[in-house]
Amino acid sequence: MKALIVDDERHVREAIRLLVDWKAYGIESILEAQDAQTAIDIIEKERPQIIFTDMMMPGKLGTELLAWIQQHAPRTKTIVISGHDDFDFVRKTVMYGGIDYILKPIDPIQLNEAVSKAVASRKQEDEGSKQEQRKSIEINQLKPVYWNKMLTHLLDDPSYYSSIAETLHTEFGLPTGDLPCRVAVLATDTINPAIRSKFAGSEDLLYFSLLNICNEFVRKHNQGVAFRHNHGDIVVILWKQTEKGAALLDTMNNGIQRALGSRLEFGVGSERMLPAGFKQSYNEAILVLRQRNMRVVRPRIRCFDPNENPRQSTVHLSEYEDRLRFAIRSGKANPIKEAVQQWINQVEAMKYINIEQLELWGHEYGVIKARWLKELFGDSPVTLSLPSESAFFIVPLDQDGCLSLKQWGVELEEGLLHLSQLWVEHKRQDEHIIFDIVKYVDSHYADDLTLQNIAERFFLSREYISRKFKQQFQENLSDYIERIRMDKAKLLLLNPQYRIVQIADLVGYKDEKYFSKVFKKIEGVSPNEYRKHSK
């Protein structure tokens, strides 16, 4: 905080400097002026928050300085220090917003009380100003969100128009009553990667910037408004000079290029009556974008043509599913590269590929990949770091916005190779876990072994262990445990020192009769008969 002392007498300025506890009030800078004009020059340059002024000075009087301060620095707090007990001076001090009128010689207590009052008043005003600024910022931040919701609602339900028509007129200058409108949609799926990189991956910040640029042009002469539809498309409604809509969008695109370094694509619907035709014009703009041929360089502004009905040959990814699956199971890069190249060659032969075709392939890939994961990994409890699906769901484009088949093939190849490597590693881990279970059973056959016990020990599900054990050894785990126990029992039966009940306990059976029953079932004879035969 800064303070300015204005007095033509030097000793008075020095007295004020000595009497005020500046540090206690947070005042770091104390300035001085010996007349009103010098004070005005300092005020314009330094903007002090607190001013002490005399009334009788050469040149302009203190009352003139107070009047100037009230007009040009109204938030500045003033304290008058005068040697004249003049009612008119006091009255004008109050009239011009002075905090106090102190007579010379200066009373230190009165002076510090006046300073304290002035500082507190200024801080209170500053805090109020900050709150107003914060409130204004919050309102400005919420406004776009509010209008995005309002206009999205209008697009989805034209009957909503009657309830917000007056507000649209006040906010955007939209003429009242039915009028022609035209809708344009900005294609966000072909935005140049260089533009996205400028916003460090923040899609919201990118869209916010694009909306500001679009509105800068359409709202300049109340020609329309741009908004974000359901956190997705950027939609531009035009309601003035709609026949020149394409030209306005072209000018807008020039502004986007100047600001972001690249032009974008717009699909434009036909002229319809607002509000009934709003959604129809929007759907036409969307259709224009979905029918774009992603194989060629396209016009940046493309208007709806009802006679346009492009035909395309459909190639299904499912036709290549087996080749890709076998390549993944090979665990090697070359088979995967060859299988992917076969697919890319097929796509290369297609001269027309639109967004609908790309979405169809993306859907097919999702279904196929779900089958692969079930087939390769089953219900594996191991958390897998699966490759991203960007190879089909975010199709790579070149700098002109055209489908880059070369890059697409590279990304798809990398994703499938990653999946293949995961499967090989998973298979190796599966085998390792199953052999660990075998080792555990071989050394703990005499314990109370159950499938549940083993599952808990190895943190696996019973179903997973049963299936993997059967796949690896072609027998059930329970049968394997019984077979191991019977092999151990046969060795013990060769020693006549052990009674049958002892042998049963040593191989994990607490019930002698049950042990004998299982032994006979597996070996075809009872334990006693086996012992006699062995002798």
From TrEMBL:
Residues modified as 4-aspartylphosphate: D54
A single GO molecular function term of this UniProt record: sequence-specific DNA binding
Domain named HTH araC/xylS-type: residues: 435-533
Cytoplasm is among the record's keywords: no
Keyword terms: DNA-binding, Phosphoprotein, Transcription, Transcription regulation
Location of the Response regulatory domain: 2-119
Database matches in InterPro entries: CdaR_GGDEF (IPR041522), CheY-like_superfamily (IPR011006), Homeodomain-like_sf (IPR009057), HTH_AraC (IPR018060), HTH_AraC-typ_CS (IPR018062), Sig_transdc_resp-reg_receiver (IPR001789), Tscrpt_reg_AraC-type_HTH (IPR020449)
SUPFAM superfamilies in alphabetical order: CheY-like, Homeodomain-like
Keyword Oxidoreductase: no
Pfam families listed in its UniProt record: GGDEF_2, HTH_18, Response_reg
Gene3D superfamilies given in the database record: 3.40.50.2300, Homeodomain-like (1.10.10.60)
One record GO biological process: phosphorelay signal transduction system
PANTHER family registered for this protein in UniProt: ARAC-FAMILY TRANSCRIPTIONAL REGULATOR, REGULATORY PROTEIN POCR
The protein's name: DNA-binding response regulator
Organism: Paenibacillus baekrokdamisoli
Organism lineage: Bacteria, Bacillati, Bacillota, Bacilli, Bacillales
